[in-house]
Amino acid sequence: MPGDESFRAHAKYRRPQRGSRDAANRRPDQKPHHTSNPDPGPPVPAGADLLLEVPILVETNPYWVPVVGFSSVCLLPRKGEIMRRAGFVLALTVLIVGFGCANERPALDEFSRVYTVFFDAAELTDQAARVPLDKDSDYWKALTLAMDTRASGQQRAEAASTALATYSAQTASEIAVFDESIGSLDSSVTTLIETANRIKNADARAQGTATAKHARALQAAFAALLPLYQRRFELQLEVLRDFVADNGALTAIARNQHGASELHTLIAESNERWKEAAEYWQETKDAFSAMKGQFALKTYPSKWADSTAAAVSVPQ
Q1: How would you class 7 by CB atoms within 10 Å of its CB: exposed for 0-12, middle for 13-18, buried for 19 or more?
Q2: Is the pLDDT confidence value at 53 over 90?
Q3: Range of the domain at 196
Q4: Same domain assignment for residues 67 and 171
Q5: Using one digit for the tens of pLDDT, what is the confidence trace for 163-203?
Q6: One domain for residues 190 and 51
Q7: What phi and psi values does residue 75 have, to the nearest 5 degrees?
Q8: How many domains does one find in the chain?
Q9: Are residues 156 and 251 in the same domain?
Q10: Which of 167-176, 234-243, 257-266 has the lowest mean pLDDT?
Q11: pTM of this prediction?
């Protein structure tokens, strides 16, 4: 401080100014004394001039601490001032983020609405994928009887004929509905991706795109089921036609032995796609729920109750 002995001790090291007392007391007829090495006076300690500036800096900047460098004095904020400024910056950041989220509300609500559309499309696709494999349907009942080795040839032939007719009347249209639902799901996922990328808030956009990424994986898993279904029914129809041609003789099964191993492979692959669909479905819902909780997304009514069927059972 100004009264500190250390500052008074350094005060004597002021540099002599031009036009000193020697020049003022020189006689008119006396020439100035020139030397090649004029006496600079007492040696000035390094940084002494800078130290003389410290008391003034302290008095005029009470929230800052002066630090003497090699050739200058700089000011650093005191600890309390650092905390005060940090709190101000944090409050300002929260205010800016809150204001940004307020501006993002229409985009966030739109994402929630589009997600609901996707949710309904995914539920529809899940149900549509199960219908063709419903073992209680007329097709599967007739197919089971046609493959019964304990039945008579005539019974097998009649059952095979019924299965073929039922497939054309019901099952083929059910597969077509499944195919159409995959297309609708694909469109809803595309819209979800586009809507997520229109969100300006970086965190919300990242969570939205992550949700859409899981949704795309779910759609891809359902899409992969379709060709497996189609090939599976093709193999079954070949055997049924042979049963009708052979009047139910078991030779129809023998002629289609090559398809038996392929059929097992198709069933195993279908099971894997169903398991993937269940995993991606749960990941999609979890990601959206986290985003909804953090950003208080608006809730839109769904056409379907929240189903866990895909996570519990796998059609055989």
Answers
A1: middle
A2: no
A3: 106-312
A4: no
A5: 999 999 999 999 999 999 999 999 999 999 999 999 999 99
A6: no
A7: -110, 130
A8: 2
A9: yes
A10: 257-266
A11: 0.67
